[in-house]
Design goal:
The chain is mostly helical and 259 residues long. It contains eleven helices and no strands. The longest helix has 23 residues. It is globular, with a radius of gyration of 18 Å.
Length: 259
């Protein structure tokens, strides 16, 4: 029997988000109704508390015993393992589709759905990981760890707006995960803002960083990518969300490096 999403419990929706966005064995503890997976983006920043926390802890405590450069690389590896490279897969597909599909909407969507990685995806992933590692290495270890804790949830909160700003580019049957995110209610939007802005607010208060640059420049990057996505395919996909999330997060690190 199909359940209305609004009839599901809030904790089921959180469980669904943690199961969907990580490879941690949350599913062994609880199996939420399938309908809850349409709401996972509403708790995406909360999953970022886990992934960002694990990455920051690996970097910070790893630097006690290992050279800082190795601690940075291990932190990146830990997040890749926890997420199953979910967002990196999206970034690679996004770059292949938008790089090789030209202005043909159907071709772009077809390339993004193809599981094989192309030249644009390979080069893009290499450059992304190099920039990520270089940005973290450019910061003192404590600042880098704190920035990760703030940037991960914040980038997911900003990227989640794509779901509200445009429709899904495919139909549910064509979706890779057979899931189409629902439009967010104002209550979900408030919850999402708290999840993403609370860590960022504490970070800005503690570090004294320029809040205008760190808040608005990544948001401008998201808007620019939104305009590109809308012009090319008139809707979002899961790959688009993963790619935008990583690029917005990377922007946070690059902005911090300039201060």
């Amino acid at each position: 029997m199909q359940i209305n999403i609004d009839q599901t419990h809030w904790y089921d929706r959180i469980w669904a988000a943690l199961i969907f966005f990580t490879r941690l064995p949350f599913w062994r503890l609880h199996q939420p109704p399938q309908e809850c997976y349409a709401t996972v983006v509403e708790h995406w920043p909360l999953a970022g508390w886990f992934t960002g926390g694990a990455m920051a802890a690996t970097l910070y405590f790893g630097s006690w015993y290992l050279p800082y450069s190795i601690a940075v690389l291990l932190a990146i590896v830990v997040r890749l393992l926890i997420t199953g490279a979910l967002h990196e897969d999206g970034l690679a597909d996004f770059l292949d589709g938008f790089g090789g599909g030209g202005s043909d909407r159907s071709r772009i969507l077809s390339i993004m759905k193809d599981s094989h990685i192309g030249t644009y995806g390979v080069i893009g992933l290499i450059l992304y990981e190099l920039l990520l590692a270089a940005a973290l290495l450019a910061m003192p270890v404590e600042l880098a760890a704190l920035t990760i804790l703030a940037a991960d949830p914040y980038s997911k909160m900003v990227t989640s707006q794509l779901v509200t700003m445009m429709p899904y580019a495919r139909n549910e049957a064509e979706a890779k995960n057979r899931t189409v995110y629902r439009k967010m209610s104002w209550q979900a939007g408030v919850s999402l803002a708290i999840q993403g802005l609370l860590p960022m607010g504490l970070y800005l208060w503690y570090t004294g960083m320029r809040w205008d640059l760190i808040i608005f420049i990544p948001a401008l990057v998201m808007y620019g990518l939104y305009m590109l996505i809308w012009r090319k395919i008139h809707g979002y996909t899961g790959d688009c969300c993963g790619a935008v999330c990583l690029l917005v997060e990377l922007t946070v690190y690059l902005v911090v490096c300039t201060q």
